[in-house]
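$ fold --in a.seq
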Amino acid sequence: MALEEIDRPPSANEVLIKVSAASVNPVDAKMREGKYPVVTEKNLPYVLGRDVSGQIAAAGDNVSTFLIGDDVFAFLSPEHGGYEEFVLARVDEVAAKPKSLDQVGAAAVPLAGITAWQGLFDHGGLRPANGSSSTAALAVLAISPFSSPKQSAPGSQPPYPQPTRSSLATSGPIR
């Protein structure tokens, strides 16, 4: 293990997050051993951690969605590990931290949320139905900022429903 000081200002579409909390996931053990396809032995040493929460410390020139000091949480791409004091993240990997979650709770959401989303929608065939809103729809809203780990082509529709606050008020139960 090495402790290093690295100066990494955010690029135009990145933010620098002062990490308050980071979660530990089973995939981190695989990465640490170099047994994960994205991180092999030739990539070691490697900073682990994909889920973080914290505050925006700096923002790139093209970032207009966050201000310095905003509380956020993020599901980081493999090139940026989260077990650091400060971490760079693409702005599309970051969402405002829900006020109902503390920093530790927010850091636990991203990968677990994506896993739940994939289980419900990709593999479970869950789809919103017409009618009144439901508790399940509100749970989906909590993970929706991280709902699409797959990259969609510009202008294309994601493969699963993307709930919004306004659509949940009129959407039906999720089946």
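$ fold --in b.seq
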Amino acid sequence: MFSSIEDPSFGNFSLDFLCYDRARFTLNIVMTISLLPKLRSFPQSLPLEGAVRIELVEGVPIFRASGIVQSRIEALLAKQQDDTLTPDEEEELDCYEDIDDYLSFVNCTVRNMSISQTEPVI
């Protein structure tokens, strides 16, 4: 079985996979990335240091928003549910969403690269 997944939100990005093997399930991933997603801007409240933390998950680095950034996003989301955000707060939340999408893209790329490696973990 041969399938292809394309995601236009990341430019020209496709993920092709071939799944079959007689004795076990095998996944071969071929990625074509022509454009790295671009960020419009950073929110004014984004700290220049400590905005992102790195965790190791099964030996793979995963980039996540820091506790400070996560708290700010949660505050904006809570205010959005209870009240109306100002235009500046809407823009700030949109920027955080873009950063989250970017980090997800980076994490996905790093995970896919680690899957294709056959070297032992150091």
